[in-house]
Design a protein that fits this description.
Elements: E1 24-29, E2 35-39, E3 44-48, E4 53-57, E5 74-77, E6 83-87, E7 92-96, E8 102-106
Antiparallel strand pairs: 1-2, 2-3, 3-4, 5-6, 6-7, 7-8
Length: 110
């Protein structure tokens, strides 16, 4: 974070204040200070370090609230605040709007 504080987050099954998976594949610090963590087995976590608030986007859930798969090896931010998520295992590409909802997903062909 901007103050130089070191944060440590871990995966603990069933813990909503932890990472969704124990194998981290991608990290992104966006311009608003949110930390995005892509994992191989649990999807994507959006973390607000200031309040230790977590939001997890796993695979196969409700449209707008989940990703096509849980293997997330790539995360990138656009200038407009959109976050782009690259997935494997048939996941393809997803777009997360500035409000945090998945507002587009394109599956890859296998």
């Amino acid at each position: 974070d901007p103050e130089g504080t070191l944060h440590r987050w871990r995966h603990h099954a069933g813990d909503e204040r932890g990472l969704p998976g124990d194998r981290v594949a991608a990290l992104l610090l966006d311009r608003s200070g949110l930390v995005w963590v892509g994992t191989w087995t649990g999807g994507l976590a959006r973390i607000d370090p200031a309040g230790e608030r977590f939001r997890v986007l796993g695979g196969g859930g409700e449209p707008g609230e989940s990703l096509p798969t849980e293997a997330v090896p790539a995360v990138a931010a656009a200038a407009d605040g959109t976050v782009w998520v690259g997935m494997v295992d048939g996941g393809g590409l997803a777009r997360i709007g500035p409000g945090g909802r998945v507002d587009g997903a394109w599956r890859s062909r296998e």
